[in-house]
Write a structure and sequence with these properties.
Structural class of chain A: alpha+beta
Shape of chain A: elongated
Radius of gyration of chain A: 23 Å
Oligomer: heterotrimer
Strand order of the largest sheet of chain C: 1-2-3
Helix content of chain A: 25-40%
Largest sheet of chain C: 3 strands, antiparallel
Structural class of chain C: alpha+beta
Strand content of chain A: 5-15%
Number of helices of chain C: 14
Chains: A alpha+beta (about 130), B alpha/beta (about 110), C alpha+beta (about 350)
Strand order of the largest sheet of chain A: 1-4
Radius of gyration of chain C: 20 Å
Order of helices and strands of chain C: EEEHHHHHEEHHHHHHEEEHHH
CATH architecture of one domain in chain A: 2-Layer Sandwich
Largest sheet of chain A: 2 strands, antiparallel
Number of strands of chain A: 4
Chain lengths: ~130, ~110, ~350
């Protein structure tokens, strides 16, 4: 008990253990698992990242002409990095040490709509491919 | 891994476990139910204290509406696993109350197939 | 004796940020009957793992069962799947898993100790414990990239390697942490307030522990020598100086002291892991699909964690069953309360370090 008392008195004169966040910056530490960054010019559109993503934060929509479009939802992402490891093209998907922008800063993507669109366009695309084959 | 698996009929489960179970030697882990399509496969898991990877498993099959005998006379702590069985697989376990996990308005027997 | 009074305890607590509810029937101060409700946060994770997710993704899903023992859940699942598919994991990956798992144990035990100090009314010690816990959290962030949801272990190995800089920082910070933990041990062991509050309260006798199949630190505090690290060979614990710790007494004080001793043992093990880190790959490629059934036991910080996995050559598993340590300790909690003073209930509940998001899944 005496130890604790002395320690407590000492604590009165120590620096605070917490970071005074809004006044001081609180940078993300090194090795942090952060956002996924996508480079379209390197992508070969194999959709492997879409298949491995556990929460479904990466979706591809299929355009009429057969090209695909990459969509990423940083608020659904769990930052596990499965997509980066699954990507056959090095440098196309990378994980940076940055957090997602706070959700109030910009408008949130309407992800439900996008998921629906991705499902429908994929169905259409598959049907078109089937027709072409037969 | 040393696993001793004993197949028993549902009626004999309690007797078989009573004959074998020595609380000082065996640790009761849990009872698990798996839906195998129309029937439920029940497994009672035991492990030996102080020994590496020694298991004993009792297996029985039950229909959806069979009454599952309770083990709480032999293993007093078994009630909670049995209540879970009654809740999540919708089985009729002797003496089990429903509602350990589920609310009255949640789906019934979520772990069943189909 | 007075009339019976019904006192609901929970689902919101002073110290514990998790929903468990007890309804006590008391006669004056003595508890005569108790009902328990653990299902507030049932999320149907087992069902989701059996319908929605592929077996390679399930590891990330079960990690979200609980934030505190995230590594244990993934470890349990991954070990089960590896046994099903006969995957030989490289030695280095095993050591890295061991590192993450022991860091996790240290942080979880420090959390439990802090909470216990808080329910004893000892806010000062609570703050001290949590300040020191921050060090472990930083180390976890350094090794795995996140403070609690590690996503470190995967089928076939681990996701990240340990760089030399990280190793150096680990060693430095672990040394500081060890000193702080030794100081904390001294306080927890000898403080007059704590002894007065915890000794002889909520006693689990050895007979009771055996009869009710208690697991984890509460069991070891009642002289029941059961530790899965000793009984199940999932990681090379014996190579890095693991000790089985048991205590006499079975009261809250003994349960806390088991945690304190285990924290120190884990820290020793962490140094040994860093010293004996083998060379080699951290991951092997995974081919094939799980078939058959496997069950594993893992020592999570709170006790024995049991995983049952059944697959039939499909991407989606047939059955995944999680039996968590708190789930196994609820019967003994219930038994313990009968005949106890109501004032001792909060400390007794926290002394089990209950994790309700694990229990309800």
């Amino acid at each position: 008990m005496k130890d604790m008392f002395i320690e407590s008195l000492k604590n009165l004169f120590r620096k605070p253990a917490t970071v005074k966040y809004p006044l001081e910056p609180s940078p993300t530490p090194s090795n942090y698992r952060g956002l996924i960054v996508y480079k379209e010019e390197l992508c070969i559109f194999c959709t492997k990242c879409e298949m491995v993503c556990p929460p479904g934060a990466i979706r591809f929509t299929y355009n009429e002409d057969g090209s695909k479009e990459f969509h990423y939802n940083p608020y659904l992402c769990i930052y596990c990095g499965e997509c980066v490891r699954a990507c056959p093209k090095p440098g196309c998907l990378i994980q940076v040490e940055e957090t997602a922008p706070s959700a109030t800063e910009e408008e949130l993507p309407n992800w439900d709509d996008l998921e629906r669109k991705a499902d429908e366009s994929k169905k259409r695309w598959l049907q078109a491919r089937k027709k072409k084959k037969s | 891994m040393k696993v001793e698996e004993v197949k028993v009929s549902l009626r004999d489960v309690r007797r078989a476990i009573k004959d074998f179970y020595d609380p000082e030697e065996w640790h009761f882990i849990t009872v698990n139910g798996t839906d195998v399509g129309g029937r439920i496969e029940l497994k009672w898991f035991f492990t030996k204290y102080g020994e590496e990877e020694a298991f004993k498993v009792f297996t029985a099959e039950a229909n959806y509406d069979d009454e599952i005998p309770t083990l709480t006379y032999i293993i007093p702590s078994a009630w909670i696993s049995e209540w879970e069985l009654a809740d999540l697989l919708g089985l009729n376990v002797e003496g089990a109350k429903k509602g350990l996990f589920l609310d009255p308005d949640s789906p019934k027997a979520p772990l069943r197939r189909g | 004796m007075g009339n019976r009074i019904t006192i609901p305890f929970g689902s919101q607590h002073v110290a514990l940020p998790e929903p468990i509810r007890f309804v006590f029937q008391t006669e004056n101060e003595k508890i005569v009957d108790v009902e328990v409700d653990v299902g507030y946060v049932h999320r149907g994770i087992e069902k989701a793992c059996m319908t929605k997710f592929k077996y390679t993704q399930v590891g990330y899903v079960v990690a979200r069962v609980c934030g505190l023992c995230a590594i244990s859940h993934t470890l349990g699942y991954v070990t089960a799947v590896e046994r099903l598919m006969n995957i030989e994991v490289p030695k280095k990956a095993l050591y890295l898993r061991l590192l993450a798992s022991e860091l996790d144990r240290v942080h979880s035990h420090l959390l439990a100790m802090g909470h216990l100090a808080e329910v004893a009314g000892y806010e000062n010690l609570f703050m001290h414990t949590f300040r020191d816990r921050e060090l472990v959290m930083e180390l976890q962030e350094l090794v795995t990239g996140n403070r609690i949801q590690f996503d470190y272990v995967t089928v076939g190995g681990v996701n990240r390697d340990l760089t030399p800089e990280v190793e150096k920082e680990l060693r430095e910070k672990l040394k500081i942490l060890q000193e702080k933990c030794l100081w904390l041990k001294d306080v927890f062991e000898n403080d007059y307030t704590i002894k007065l509050r915890w000794k002889g309260v909520g006693v689990i006798t050895p007979e009771m522990a055996i009869e009710l199949n208690v697991v984890g630190p509460p069991a070891r505090a009642s002289e029941l020598a059961t530790d899965v690290r000793n009984e199940f060979n999932y990681l090379p614990f014996k190579e890095v100086g693991y000790k089985l710790i048991t205590m006499k007494g079975g009261d809250i004080y003994a349960r806390n002291m088991v945690r304190v001793e285990e924290t120190l043992n884990s820290l020793d093990m962490l140094f040994n892991i860093l010293d004996g880190m083998p060379e080699g790959d951290i991951k092997v490629p995974v081919k094939g699909l799980p078939e058959g059934e496997a069950f594993v036991r893992i020592e999570a910080p709170r006790g024995e964690l049991f995983y049952y996995v059944k697959g039939s050559k499909k991407m989606v598993l047939d059955r995944l069953r999680i039996r968590v340590p708190t789930f196994a300790n609820v019967p003994v909690m219930k038994e313990l309360f009968i005949g106890m003073d109501y004032a001792d209930v909060p400390a007794t509940v926290i002394s089990f370090d209950p994790c309700l998001s694990c229990t309800a899944r």
